[in-house]
Design brief:
With about 140 residues, the chain is mainly alpha-helical. Helix content is about 80%, strand content about 0%. Helix 1 runs antiparallel to helix 2 and helix 4 runs antiparallel to helix 5.
Length: about 140
C-alpha cells in the first residue's frame, strides 16, 4: 500500500498542476469554463480522494497510528512526529482545499470566478503539498520517500 500511496502522488501532482495552469489561463485570459476544465477538476478531486484513502490505509494498517498510544514519545521525536501527526494533518488539509476549490469553482456564478476560485484553492493546496511532502522531509534529511 505504501508503494501505491507513494506512486499516486505523482498523478495527484500532475492533475493539480494541470488544474492550476488551466485555472490561471482561464482566469487571467477571461476564457469560458469549459467541459475540460470541469473534467480536470473532477479527476483531480477523484485521485486526491483515492490518495487519502490509501494514506489512511497506510496510516492505520501500517501501524503509524500506534505511536499515538505514547503521545509524549511521538512529540519528542521530530521524524516520528512528522509522519505520525504533521504529514497526516497537512494532507487532510490539502484534500479539504482541493475539494473546496472544486466545489466553489463548479458553483461560482461566472466563468471568471470559476477559474479564480479553482486557481486560488489549488495553489494553496500545492503549497501545503510542497511543505508537507517535500520541503519538511528534505529538511529532516529524509528526502521525499
Amino acid at each position: 500500500m505504501l508503494h501505491a500511496h507513494s506512486g499516486l502522488r505523482y498523478i495527484v501532482l500532475l492533475f493539480l498542476i494541470v488544474a492550476i495552469v488551466k485555472s490561471l489561463m482561464g482566469w487571467l485570459g477571461k476564457k469560458p469554463f469549459s467541459k475540460s476544465d470541469n473534467i480536470i477538476g473532477a479527476m483531480l478531486m477523484g485521485v486526491t480522494h483515492l490518495q487519502i484513502v490509501l494514506g489512511f490505509v497506510v496510516y492505520f494498517v501500517g501501524g503509524w497510528n500506534a505511536g499515538l498510544m505514547n503521545f509524549g514519545a511521538v512529540m519528542k521525536d521530530s521524524i516520528v512526529r512528522f509522519w505520525t501527526i504533521e504529514h497526516a494533518v497537512i494532507m487532510i488539509v490539502v484534500v479539504v482545499l482541493i475539494s473546496i476549490g472544486r466545489i466553489k469553482s463548479k458553483k461560482a456564478p461566472t466563468d471568471e470566478l470559476k477559474h479564480k476560485k479553482g486557481a486560488i484553492f489549488y495553489i494553496i493546496a500545492l503549497i501545503f503539498i510542497l511543505w508537507g511532502g517535500v520541503i519538511k522531509p528534505f529538511a529532516m534529511g529524509r528526502g521525499w520517500i
